[in-house]
Amino acid sequence: MRQLGKKHRTPYHVKLRRQMRVLYYVCDTNVPSWGIGMIYTHVRLLRANGIDAAVLHSQPGFRPGWMGFDAPRLYRRDPAFRIGPDDLLVVPEVHAAEPDALNLTRRRVVFVQASSYIAPGLGNAKDYCELGYRGAIAIMPHVREVVERHYGMEAPVIPPCVAPYFFADGSKQAVARKRQVVLCPKAGCRDFPIVRQMLHSRARALGWRVVELKDKPHRYVARIFRQAAIHVNVNCQESFNATVPEAMAAGCIPVCYEAFGGKDYLRDGENAFVLPTHHAYPLVERTLELMTSWAAKERELGRIRRGGRTTARRYTEALTEKALVCYFRPLSAGS
After folding, report:
1. What average pLDDT does range 306-314 have in this prediction?
2. Concatenated DSSP letters for 152-205?
3. pTM of the prediction?
């Protein structure tokens, strides 16, 4: 089967009319998730380029309260909602096998943001073709490799982005950093309780403070990152692992696991301090050593901070927008 987005050409079986909408299927949750944030960003950027798009939630009136921006929303449970024959449904990989998504339309592409969610999202299906998907989009190069090698579908990359409000002014990145270590609790991080307990028990004696950001508004997180010195992240399930490049953009030094997705952008000693996955105690030791010798490491930390900013600049809205338009414009051109 030929697939949507292949080599950015409109395939023979998807001759689309001008009234096509791009609808992004999402769940209703107020738990902050930059995966959902990226969907809202896609919709906003598509509409800015004249391509009709909306976020498709479930219950009428739902709106995520944590996000720092908005985009048009529709609702699957709204009695007035109808999906048109030319509309295109974009479904996150975690929802790929949900009956609600499968029954809405056969004109579906899957949006793969996390390789660890592919298998759970497929349910009993072996790949996306079996579920009737006509194409796939990957968020990172390593995700594309996984989808194309193991799940039978080409997956052009539309890269993620860091929200613009995380980027600190270059001249202020190293100025007046508070001696704070920022933690962002994430469900399923088995090493988080170890790291949290050890850092909390030692920080005060070293003149530092541990700040936990759970379910906070996105702009508030950005403000804390622009002030804090260190961000410790032990999430190893996701691909972009957004708080790490967000910290880089804000001038906050990441201490994190290499994980799987980190292969695309993490460089130990260049843009972050990177430890092997699940090496929780060495990660805490590295963090405590940084806290103890922070002033003496000013030159090294400045170099890593600059490297992190350079890395974060690879994930801007402008680059996401360019790839989005390249993928969707041919599909919306119509006759």
Report:
1. 97
2. SS---B------GGGPPPGGGTTTT-EEEEEE---TT-TTHHHHHHHHHHHHGG
3. 0.90
